[in-house]
Write a structure and sequence with these properties.
The protein has about 350 residues and is an alpha+beta fold. It folds into 3 domains: about 45 residues; about 190 residues, Penicillin-binding protein 2a (Domain 2); about 80 residues, no CATH class. It has 13 helices and 12 strands. Strands 2, 3, 4, 5 and 10 form a 5-stranded mixed beta sheet that branches. It has a 3-stranded antiparallel beta sheet with strand order 1-8-9. A two-stranded antiparallel ribbon has the order 6-7. It starts with a helix and ends in a 10-residue tail after the last helix.
Length: about 350
């Protein structure tokens, strides 16, 4: 019996030692995995996590440059800017959009046109983007909202530059206009080298000089590095680079001559291009009828768009560039403007 007990004890001791070895190996393996993971987090991915930690404490905010002016040959302003306050909503931060807009209408005037424009802009924007609901707020309206701002998460007031065309429809087809960047234009910017320069920018040239000289007129976007709280509120500015305003574009156009020809056309349809034969400079480029460029600055309403788009006179058509006319005497257009060709309707 004693020999059997000894052999049995040795077998149990052997099994125990094997178990201890297996457990020790598993523990060592787990510590090895932990040490490896610690090495990855602390060494391999140190820069990545340091950047994330820094981004939780700081925020880089783009500074949109002031768009350049457009002048005629004599320095008369054809396109400029002015600053105004806008009431804007970030949909991703608003639990009930319709209820929020209804409550905001108790503080500031929000017209049906404002609501329609806001819904149209939503189709071309992402949920985390800020969308203007009301533009050109008065100081009194700004004060009323500021006092109740805590009630409206995701709603804020921003100071923005707006484009202005002082001469309205004069040389409208030449100057063109700007408008909000749509989805197609956004995708084109993302594929271009200028994408970083359009951070924070919401408008772009659509037609005419505004489109052709977009790069020169836009300028260079700046930035501010702000220290923020856990709630996302700015505490202080850490670093910054100012924005560079867009270039002023001077045209060979003589707006005095341009307006004279447009007035001579009156309500008739037609086109005229007047050039300096000595150097080929365009002094006047007329397409009648025209339209007020300021209608497009803040998003044209449906009523005006339907009128311009469906009018038999086709005011949106640039006849000087896209119209087709039979060849004729060089002097006939000028005679027609002076009213010497009675009985002929301008095309």
């Amino acid at each position: 019996m004693s020999g059997f007990e000894v052999r049995n004890s040795e077998a149990e001791l052997y099994k125990f030692r094997v178990r201890i070895a297996v457990v020790a190996l598993v523990v060592l393996l787990m510590f090895g995995v932990l040490l490896y993971r610690l090495f990855v987090l602390q060494v391999v991915r140190h820069d990545s996590f340091a950047e994330r930690a820094e981004s939780n404490r700081t925020a880089v905010v783009p500074i949109v440059p002031n768009r350049g002016q457009i002048l005629d040959r004599n320095g008369i302003v054809l396109a400029t800017n002015y600053s105004a306050y806008t009431l804007e909503i970030t949909r991703s931060k608003v639990p009930d959009l319709e209820a929020t807009i209804d409550e905001l209408s108790q503080l500031v005037e929000i017209t049906p046109r404002d609501r329609r424009k806001f819904k149209r802009l939503m189709d071309d924007s992402k949920r985390f983007e800020s969308i203007p609901l009301r533009s050109r707020l008065s100081d009194e309206e700004v004060a009323r909202f500021t006092a109740q701002r805590w009630r409206f998460p995701g709603v804020d007031i921003k100071a923005r530059f707006f484009r202005n065309y002082p001469l309205e429809d004069v040389a409208g087809h030449v100057v063109g206009y700007i408008g909000r960047i749509n989805q197609r234009e956004q995708e084109a910017l993302e594929d271009s080298d200028d994408y970083a320069n359009y951070r924070g920018t919401e408008v772009i040239g659509k037609l005419g000089i505004e489109q052709s000289y977009e790069k020169q007129l836009h300028g260079t976007t700046g930035w501010e590095q702000l220290e923020t709280t856990a709630g996302g509120y700015a505490v202080r500015r850490l670093n910054s680079r100012p924005a560079t305003p867009g270039d002023t574009v001077g045209l060979s156009l003589d707006v005095g001559l341009q307006k004279l020809v447009e007035d001579l056309y009156g309500e008739r349809r037609g086109a005229l291009v007047a050039m300096d034969p000595r150097n080929g400079e365009v002094l006047a480029m007329v397409s009648k009828p025209g339209y007020d460029l300021n209608l497009f600055v803040d998003g044209i309403d449906q009523e005006n768009w339907d009128f311009l788009n469906n009018s038999i006179d086709r005011p949106l058509l640039n006849r000087a560039l896209r119209g087709t006319y039979p060849p004729g005497s060089t002097y006939k257009p000028f005679m027609a403007i002076a009213g010497l060709e009675s009985g002929k309707r301008q095309i």
